[in-house]
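Quick illustration, no need to memorize.
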Amino acid sequence: MKNLAKSLFGLILYIVLIFGTAYLLGHFVVGQVEVDGPSMNDTLQDHDRVLMNKFTYRVKTLDRFDVIVFKYAYDTDTDYIKRVIGLPGETVRIDMDGNIYINDELLEEDYGKEVIEYPGIAEDGVTLGKDQYFVLGDNRNNSNDSRDPDVAAVSKSQIRGHVWLRLRPDFGLVK
């Protein structure tokens, strides 16, 4: 009877450890998000299922061109997925020809699906605070992003994670 109680206790402890670890990983380290809409085409498609790393951006700074998930400031139940273009302390400007400038230097990048038609609030330049990021969707003319005053600069506190892996429909790393 004593051995049965020990075995049962061991099994319960094992189950608690498994569920506890799964909870901690899911809550603090990794999360799944479904892409909603075409704003990240061609990199991500509507209804793609992706994994985000919730941990690393807390201990290191985000890099330019990282794809992130962040909470929309006016509806915390809404997540956006966009690409980081401007980093804290930088000034981002988009001219009427669709060119992106960081601190008055032309940004060399090829993530945009097409030439930006509307620079929005970035036409005159947006200077980012110490914990702010300027983000754009890859489908530049079909994206609510930092050019829109309702989105504007994304603060670090809004960021939920860094997208790094597509689960479905096509499994692979997100560049």
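The longest strand covers residues 75-86.
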